[in-house]
């Protein structure tokens, strides 16, 4: 709820048993789930009843400290009011970020294994977005904090793959086509996400200029999935009217000039 990290799990249908199986996989990989928020779908209500019965039966088989431990390991389920999907907008927005672009890049049917692999890679991309800086005292090394840090302790990565965007689809194998879908998704979603960080009211309000030493995201169309270009403002180049529209940004060992519309604030920025 606070980090907006996303976990994507592929299921074959919308029954309660299938959801419980997905929930067991989630707990086995992510750890104990103390709280669940969801709408009042029949599969969720049925799964809640089944899980409550399973935990109750497990506690009856033991006494003393073991029973107390099992009670603490249980999951509390919270249901939003019926016919009120807007009250689940926080998690619906994360799922929409995946569905909106995925259905636009899908060109053929995929097997369960192919779809599951693609969703895991998309999950890594979504959880790799920088939130703020871990420690910006090191002038040469930028370490962003991402949602992935709260899941796996580090920024999620995707295994490198050749750039296949210029290769005709008919020349690709099924595996290459799957990786092409990942690249297409990344370019669509990254551009939309960076655009949301640049929403500014044109002409109505004066936007605060970036300060020297400020950490920014740099818009780039050639980055592989899960990679972000970041830099530190080292010089300002004001125009004749005194407004700065061009900045010198240090990224790695090089310093490049970028216009203001190519630079994005971090989502959580204590300096703004």
What would you note in describing this structure?
The protein is an alpha+beta fold and 272 residues long. The protein has three domains: 68 residues, no CATH class; 100 residues, no CATH class; 50 residues, no CATH class. 37% of the residues lie in helices and 15% in strands. It has seven helices and nine strands. It has a five-stranded antiparallel β-sheet, with no helix packed on it. The longest helix has 23 residues. It is globular. The model has no long low-confidence stretch (mean pLDDT 86).
Strand content: 15-25%
Outline the low-pLDDT stretches. Answer: none
Q: In one word, what is the shape?
A: globular
Along the chain, the helix and strand elements come as: HEHHEHHEEHHEEEEE
Counting structural domains, the number is: 3
* Structural classification: alpha+beta
How large, in whole angstroms, is the Cα Rg?
23 Å
Count of DSSP-assigned helices: 7
Oligomer: single chain
Q: Largest sheet at a glance?
A: 5 strands, antiparallel
How are the strands of the biggest sheet laid out side by side?
8-7-6-5-9
What is the residue-averaged pLDDT? 86
Instruction: Tell me the total number of β-strands.
Output: 9
Termini gap: 23 Å
Query: Percentage of helical residues?
Result: 25-40%
GO biological process, one term: DNA integration
GO molecular function: nucleic acid binding
Domain Integrase catalytic: 1-155
InterPro entries: DUF5641 (IPR040676), Integrase_cat-core (IPR001584), RNaseH-like_sf (IPR012337), RNaseH_sf (IPR036397)
